[in-house]
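Workshop exercise sheet. Pairs work together: one partner reads the sequence aloud, the other fills in the structure field after running the prediction. Swap roles for the next sheet.
Pair: D.N. / O.F.
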Amino acid sequence: MTLLAITGATGFVGGHVLRVAAERGHQVRALARGPQLPRARVEWVQGALDRPESLVELVEGADAVIHIAGAINAADLAGFVAANVTGTATMVTAAEAAGVSRFIHVSSLSAREPDLSDYGWSKSASEAVLRQSQLDWTIVRPPAIYGEGDREMLELFRLAAKGLVPLPPRGRLSLIEAGDLARLLVDLVDDADSIGQTFEPDDGTPNGYSHREFGRLLGQAVGRGNVMTVPVPAFALKLGALYERLRHGPRAKLTPDRVRYFCHPDWVCTARPPEALWRAHIGAADGLAATAEWYRGQRWLPPAR
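Structure field:
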């Protein structure tokens, strides 16, 4: 039996990792800011990345760390640094002090282009923290993640249900379903060959999807065969980000920082894990349709026509 110390366990991807870890028979010690409902095979540790004493409790006696926690949105560079760089460094320090050598780090495909955005820079810097450590690390750079529990893509599904999907300018992207990503993160724990490697997992589609193809897949997922995909120019996205900031303040999801990496033309995975270790089980058409159905079950999407 393996004891896994997991950060970000209360989030979207973390919830899938908890499920997969339990299915595999692992015990989990999971970090959470506040009280959580009991869950089989999970011991909750109240704390946060900026509370080092809680990380000591989290990693004590663990066999491996899966570090998922971080910020995908922040008001400024300092916010990204605090969550993604300092938070990772603090977690690495705790693991090293406890003698926990195996460390799986969830980064982002945006780390490939650190000059595009503060988010990408912070993720690249978090990877540098791992590479300078003495840990047996593996870095995972997911592309766009979707699946049950996700709120980041929800608005795109809602727009697709209305028949219109606004998208960034011309480009391509890769996708991965959250359950598939969770399987990889747990698979890596006992895989010695992946130590010191950086992987970019996706659903296995060669050369990913054009933005237009992605929009059409969203339309199919919500039962709209006639969805219109509209490429939005970069300047319009920037204006939209400014409006969002004025309207929602620090809670805005579309920010100038996000616009910069949304508009990059190539977010296609290239450094996939070896198939002997892992391969995706869920293609985009089936996965997006299942996600839409889950949204409907939560009443986040209207019933299919």
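Discussion prompt: The chain is about 40% helix and 15% strand. What would you look at next?
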